[in-house]
Design brief:
alpha/beta, 34% helix, binds 5-O-phosphono-beta-D-ribofuranosylamine
Length: 194
Amino acid sequence: MVKLIGIKKINIAVFISGTGSNLKNLISHSLRKKSRYRICLIISNNSKAKGLNYAKKYNINKKIIHYENITNAEKTILKELKRNSIDLVCLAGFMKILSAKLIKKFKGKIINIHPSLLPKYKGLNTHQRAIKNKEKFCGCSVHYVNSKLDSGKIILQKKVRIFKNDTAEKIKKKVLKQEHILYPKAISKVIVNL
Ligand code: GRF
């Protein structure tokens, strides 16, 4: 039997702007006995993000970032990351773009989940665009964050079939289900290199 006692867990911050279903899923995974990470901090630019409720429910530190001024916003983010000894940042539906400066400071330690098979369909409304182009497949990707939108090195991807009558809403649900499998797997893959 492999003894897990003494294994160091890494500290993760999850950045959200909305529902937080990925956040909730990552918290559940982090609470598993053999998990190698804990979610220590939730950051949101949106004080009304539904996902913020998980902070209270699971007793996790949270910080709302006011984005009137990006320099100040990112100063606060960096302070919080230091204060919570964060090793890895996981973006999960975070609707703000991080500056090249911040990304450089946390190089190789910021990852994102995106609802498309990158490099196809960067940005927003991915499923609508896939339907419009009569794609047979869509999917999701977890990638490292670099200074170009949705362009960093891909860590893992999962394909999802698009059927003839699928609406964007239907696809979103199917893809989200796969996101919840993919993101924890991708984290397990990257923490080996931290
Ligand atoms: C997900 O589809 C993710 O791929 C994208 O934003 C959405 C966030 O969903 N970046 P949730 O807030 O985790 O439910």
